[in-house]
Specification:
Length: 187
């Protein structure tokens, strides 16, 4: 019975780690005034009828701290890439010079920084909800094991261990959010 319990706690920890990894991936996509090709990870372009990530049809590079360049491997992909960037509503305007697309990132205003911080906090809240849902499911699984013969003391200890995991991961989420907020608000 304790083997099942150990597996449940291990799975809970793994799921919580995945929630943290997802938050980290989302935070990387939120720009903090510096050019980063990752901001185009979610943007797809129509490549001969199939939706394809921009990174698979072009080379995205950082020209300087506020400029990105996108060099398509095929010249006829310039217009579709440009349209995809505009449609993605990233807050940037692509400039097409006939061979490459340049993206100039405007400096962030105080108001825009505050909006981005709110978005970051929203991502953090989603991650916290995910961690709490994982905790709820794990506690329910422990209670089910208890009905099937697990002793009450062992079940209580398992629930405390799950709560400790939850607290640790929520503290980690708060740490990530504080770091991103500091990065965004520094001029």
């Amino acid at each position: 019975m304790s083997e099942e319990l150990d597996m449940q706690i291990e799975e809970t920890s793994s799921l919580m780690e995945k929630a943290i990894a997802h938050l980290e991936a989302e935070l990387v996509k939120i720009r903090a005034g510096r050019a980063n090709p990752v901001m185009f990870d979610g943007v797809v372009v129509d490549y001969y009828g199939s939706p394809t990530a921009i990174a698979q049809v072009a080379n995205i590079s950082v020209a300087d701290a506020r400029t990105l360049t996108i060099q398509p491997w095929e010249k006829n992909m310039l217009q579709p890439i440009e349209r995809a960037i505009i449609a993605a509503n990233l807050g940037v305007t692509p400039q097409n010079d006939g061979s490459i697309i340049r993206i100039f990132l405007p400096p962030l205003t105080e108001e825009r920084r505050r909006e981005i911080v709110k978005r970051v906090q929203g991502e953090g809240e989603q991650s916290k909800v995910a961690v709490r849902n994982i905790r709820r499911d794990a506690v329910e699984a422990v209670k089910k094991l208890q009905k099937n013969g697990l002793s009450e003391d062992i079940a209580k200890n398992a629930e405390e261990e799950i709560q400790d995991l939850t607290n640790k991961h929520i503290a980690l989420i708060d740490k990530h959010l504080a770091a991103k907020e500091k990065e965004l608000m520094s001029v």
